[in-house]
Design goal:
Bound molecules: 4'-deoxy-4'-aminopyridoxal-5'-phosphate
CATH class of the largest domain: Alpha Beta
Shape: globular
Number of domains: 2
CATH superfamily of the largest domain: Type I PLP-dependent aspartate aminotransferase-like (Major domain)
CATH architecture of the largest domain: 3-Layer(aba) Sandwich
Number of strands: 12
Number of helices: 13
């Protein structure tokens, strides 16, 4: 029965039951961690072959480049060819970098701030700069803005993109709006998948600032959890077609394909933006880790090789997602106290509890030995105005630990919701 239909006597009885259940939970002395979206050891094991590649005496790329030496700023063609297909970008417009796409996002932001983009009249740092932030979103995007004093404006994110009316209005009317953070495929954390239609709107909408940029972070482009494998939209082609070829910066990496923190990152954009990026990058480094490019190219082989590997990842993590959904449904469904996403890919489930309860739920869970990402983490400055959103990252723990953590979390959600009602 829905919590809102319970009489005050029933609520008091339920409060008593939940308090006992919570005390039992605390008594178990659990030590579980659902905080960050990390691959499980079994997922990392899938790519252990990389540890012995390219192998003794192997250091020549297909074009004869000696990968042991400096140079080759755009990265090895063989790894770029594989990911150009997967990301649906022209290989000539794709750069393969070092181990983290977050670093490329950081750098493009800093280059824009200190030097300006190819369409800027002056460096961004000389003006007030605002970024639109679809929420819930990725905390590290917001942390980058905070770090460099960029104002953030939230926009509600639905299952196929942000509130477009607000985005279009703000971008058209305010030249301080220079950027928007987008995770187009299986967004962190709500699993949103941007449709081609939404993408067209974003790349073609009029902008007050000629150097407005979409930070298109396709971190989960190939991370499907169902047979419905959403393909990468041709965002650069659509932007060119719309007359805004320089609007989009595309980012991606193999962090959750091979090894997190020891993979290959990617940047793609218009030819002018790629030249701009490589010019600044050339001051920062004498070349990327091409040895890593080579071992990744040899290991992955082709775009189909990546697709096959991603199906093995799916086999490991899909049951964990199913478990979370089943337990949430069983424990919370009938009370109608929460809603959650059922993502078709990516690494997260986004849980919304009653307004004003998320901080309490996370604190209760912590006390019971279940570490959740802090309430509000998916919002700029860590502030969720409704204090309702909790990000669940089920990939890293074992299936048993995921089940125990979500069972415990459900007790905390119910207790917090009942506490709120009985104290009202
Ligand atoms: N973007 C998003 C949306 C992510 O969720 C993550 C990883 N949590 C990253 C980027 C980080 O990617 P990388 O390891 O390539 O820096």
């Amino acid at each position: 029965m829905s919590l809102s239909d319970l009489s005050s006597a029933d609520l008091a009885a339920l409060h008593g039951e939940l308090t006992t259940a919570y005390d039992t939970l605390v008594g178990k002395g659990l030590k579980l961690d659902l905080t960050r979206g990390k691959p499980a050891p079994a997922q990392l094991d899938l790519s252990n072959e990389l540890l012995s590649l390219p192998g003794e005496g192997e250091f020549k790329a297909a074009d004869g480049t000696d990968v042991r030496n400096y140079g080759g700023g755009q990265g090895l063609p063989e790894i770029r060819e594989i990911f150009a297909e997967l990301l649906n970008v022209p290989v000539a417009q794709l750069v393969a970098g070092d181990n983290a796409s977050l670093s490329i996002m950081h750098d493009t932001l800093v280059y824009s701030l200190l030097k300006g983009t190819v369409d800027s009249e002056r460096p961004w740092v000389q003006d007030e700069i605002t970024f639109l932030c679809p929420v819930p979103g990725y905390d590290r995007h917001f942390a980058l803005c905070e770090q460099y004093g960029i104002a953030m404006e939230t926009v509600e994110l639905g299952s196929d993109g942000p509130d477009l009316e607000t985005v279009k209005r703000r971008v058209a009317e305010d030249p301080s709006v220079r950027g928007i953070w987008i995770v187009p495929t299986y967004a962190n954390p709500n699993g949103a998948v941007y449709t081609e239609e939404v993408t067209r709107e974003l790349v073609s909408m009029p902008a007050a600032a000629p150097d407005f940029r979409i930070f298109w972070d396709n971190a989960y482009a190939v991370h499907h959890l169902t047979d419905h494998e959403n393909p990468a939209v041709d965002v650069l082609g659509l932007a060119t077609e719309a007359g805004n070829p320089n609007r989009v910066f595309v980012f991606a990496s193999t962090s959750k394909i091979t090894f997190a923190g020891a993979g290959v990152s990617f940047f793609a954009s218009s030819p002018a933006n790629v030249t701009w990026y490589l010019k600044h990058l050339g001051k920062r480094t004498i070349g990327p880790d091409k040895l890593n490019h080579l071992r990744h190219a040899r290991y992955l082989g082709s775009a189909d090789g990546v697709r096959a590997l991603m199906r093995k990842h799916r086999a490991i993590i899909e049951p964990k997602f199913e478990q979370v959904e089943t337990i949430l449904e069983e424990r919370l469904g009938s009370y109608q106290v929460a809603t959650w996403t059922r993502p078709e890919g990516g690494y997260f489930i986004s849980l919304d509890v009653p307004d004003g309860c998320a901080t309490r739920v996370v604190a209760l869970a912590k006390q019971a030995g279940i570490a959740m990402t802090g309430a509000g983490a998916a919002f700029p400055y860590g502030r969720d105005p409704r204090d309702r959103n909790i990000r669940i990252a089920p990939t890293f723990p074992s299936p048993d630990d995921v089940a125990a953590a979500i069972e415990g979390l459900c007790t905390c959600v119910l207790l917090a919701a009942v506490e709120q009602r009985t104290s009202a």
